[in-house]
Write a structure and sequence with these properties.
Elements (H helix, E strand, L loop, with lengths): L1 E5 L2 E5 L1 E4 L2 E9 L14 H27 L10 H11 L4 H11 L3 H17 L4 H4 L2 H16 L13 E5 L4 H5 L6 E6 L7 H9 L3 E3 L4 H4 L5 E5 L4 E4 L3 H23 L14 E6 L5 H6 L5 E5 L1 H5 L7 H15 L3 E5 L26 H7 L1 H14 L4 E6 L5 H20 L9 E6 L2 H5 L1 H4 L5 E4 L1 H9 L17 H17 L2 E4 L10 H7 L3 E4 L4 H8 L4 H11 L5 H15 L1 H5 L7
Parallel strand pairs: 4-5, 5-6, 6-7, 10-11, 10-17, 11-12, 12-13, 13-14, 14-15, 15-16, 16-17
Antiparallel strand pairs: 1-2, 2-9, 3-7, 4-8, 8-9
Length: about 600
């Protein structure tokens, strides 16, 4: 994103997505898209052979993906759902059937037909005003790129063939690519494109290797074998550093790892301010396998269990029993601490779901979250029954996502009542006092917060989507990253309104977006009166360290000043100055680069 030359070395700045510092040799990976050089018409006699060529390419691609999935290392097998979704794309009618239809109807070669299908799919996706859904076009393009490569005979060697310790440099890495990474050989990676919430970022965090994305032109700047320094905490990348720079970063790397180890040793201590105010620190998880990490990092429960991933990696729509066993095990492991289970938040994107409904959808509606569940009551009821049954085995709370109006709450509660009646009729145990809450992540929910608070037991503020919708920006787009501003005065006032509405009614309010794990945001969130912060488990030790250094009295006083400020820059500068005075080591170690 930025580039400054210093005495022969090149300094670049990207989006930090996985913390840590690495120094090593660059290995360029060619993931550029195959160019379609030939567009031509075919005659009637050539149609069958052209369709056969397409079907052979699909079969080869499927075999490659299955081989990748079966060969995934144990430590990332829980992410196999990504490859499952890619296998589904191969068989989807919008891709397969439409391409064959174009070959037959327009009498054009398969490459041209496939290209036209992708253009049509992309146009449909661009109509969807939803970050999660629109970002899934990347999955479609990853798969079709494999098909194009198989049609052209282009090299398909995977990253699992790397036999030395390197830093990968690529335009982008597909989810399939990242599942091949061997952390014993791949020390980290940097890419031209990407954002904090992309699959690439998720996998980097799961592998616990440093990564920087959104560097725009890093592949043009780096040559094979160049020495690189990658700072995954700040987003800094240095190409061919001089000796002094290497020594500086070697020392910084040692200090970073030592500091990380030190704060991890006290992560079991409570998140309590110096004047005795306690905050509940919980974790966001996507898989059952992550629960152990939550406990080892000092999390006091699970503030957000994203249940859609079980659907994505299932061979079909998971049945009630499969869901029940998963939820029960999570509840038992984390007990007596709470686990907040968010109901299904898949969007109107059949490429990542086994739920078949695309022919009945208007993509522009952005059908997702509670809207999707209310449209598919049988699937919704199955999940609710599983959650309620599991509630007999631990401290479970239930949460509905993407609520935009009161009627959605009323409709969801009515379906919940029907499910409870069924369980009562069959004498099946469940927690009759289970707490039910909603996600506050669209502006209309903020406006209606005082009304909503009368109908639910708790709020959870999802700032990732709230910031995006409120500021009308695409948080995945590296070119728009500078506009993703959690310190925007409008966002602060929206959060304050939600918290005030909750307090007035006597319900609790948590925050589960990326802001929750950002050290610079913590004093602000505590001053606002947030009861619970839910974050990636790896962020918990540092967050506790910050909170245990704060005063709730000072945080509230700072808030009074912050809400008078008019720009994001003023807010961030003020908070940064306060944090520098309070915990200067965070600045020294690069933890306060901010969002």
């Amino acid at each position: 994103m930025s580039n400054h030359d210093v005495a022969g070395q090149k300094n670049m700045k990207g989006v930090a997505v996985s913390s840590g510092i690495i120094i090593g040799k660059a290995h360029l990976v060619d993931r550029t898209k195959t160019k379609i050089l030939y567009k031509y018409l075919i005659n009637d006699e050539e149609i069958n052979s052209e369709v056969e060529r397409f079907e052979n390419a699909l079969l080869t691609t499927e075999q490659q993906l299955v081989r990748l999935k079966n060969g995934m290392p144990e430590h990332v097998k829980e992410h196999s759902f990504i490859l499952d979704s890619h296998l589904m794309i191969l068989k989807d009618s919008m891709l397969k059937d439409s391409t064959i239809k174009r070959i037959l109807d327009e009498k054009i070669n398969v490459e041209w037909a496939l290209k036209k299908s992708i253009v049509a799919i992309r146009q449909n996706f661009e109509q969807i005003d939803d970050d999660y859904i629109s970002n899934r076009i990347n999955d479609v393009e990853y798969v079709t790129e494999r098909i194009f490569r198989n049609l052209s005979g282009k090299d398909q060697r995977g990253l699992d063939t790397i036999n030395q310790r390197v830093i990968i440099v690529a335009h982008d890495l597909s989810p399939a690519d990242t599942t091949e990474l061997n952390v014993d050989r791949v020390k980290g990676f940097i890419t031209n494109v990407g954002g904090r919430t992309s699959h690439t970022a998720i996998m980097a965090q799961a592998l616990d290797i440093p990564a920087v994305v959104g560097l725009e032109a890093i592949t043009a700047q780096v040559s094979e074998g160049d020495i690189l320094i990658v700072d995954g905490s700040t987003g800094n990348v240095i190409i061919n550093p001089d000796d002094n720079t290497i020594l500086f970063y070697e020392k910084k790397k040692f200090q970073h790892e030592e500091y990380k180890s030190n704060i991890a040793r006290v992560s079991h201590l409570p998140a309590e301010s110096i004047d005795g105010h306690r905050i509940s620190i919980t974790a966001n998880i996507e898989f059952l396998e992550e629960v152990a990490a939550v406990k080892s990092h000092g999390g006091k429960g699970i503030g957000l269990y994203r249940t859609e991933f079980l659907y994505l990696r299932s061979k079909g729509i998971p049945d009630e029993e499969e869901l029940f066993e998963d939820y029960r095990e999570v509840a038992e492991i984390i007990a007596p601490n709470p686990v907040t289970i968010r109901t299904l938040d898949l969007g109107g994107d059949k490429f990542v779901s086994k739920i078949e409904m695309a022919t009945e959808m208007n993509p522009a509606l952005g059908l997702r979250g509670i809207r999707l569940c209310l449209k598919l009551p049988d699937i919704f009821k199955s999940q609710l029954r599983a959650i309620l049954r599991a509630s007999a085995y631990g401290n479970i709370q239930l949460m509905f996502p993407m609520i935009s109006g009161l009627q959605e709450i009323l409709d969801a509660e009515q379906i919940m009542k029907e499910v409870k009646d069924e369980l009562d009729h069959n004498n099946i145990e469940y927690d009759h006092d289970i707490k039910t809450g909603i996600m506050i992540e669209v502006p209309s929910a903020v406006t209606m917060a005082e009304t909503f608070a009368q109908y639910v037991d708790f709020f959870s503020i999802g700032t990732n989507d709230l910031i995006q919708y409120a500021l009308a920006i695409d948080r995945i787009n590296e070119h728009m990253a500078f506009m993703y501003q959690p310190f925007h005065p409008a966002i602060i006032k929206m959060i304050k309104h939600v918290v005030d509405s909750a307090k007035k009614t006597g319900i609790s309010v948590s925050l589960c977006g990326e802001m929750a794990g950002d050290p610079l945001c913590l004093p602000l969130l505590i001053g606002l009166g947030i009861d619970e912060l839910s974050m990636n488990s790896s962020a918990i030790p540092l967050s506790k360290r910050v909170i245990r250094s704060l005063s709730i009295k000072d945080a509230r006083s700072d808030l009074k000043h912050v809400i008078t400020l008019g720009t994001s820059r003023e807010v961030r500068t003020y908070l940064l100055d306060r944090m520098k005075a309070l915990l200067p080591e965070l600045v020294e170690k690069g933890y306060l680069h901010g969002m």
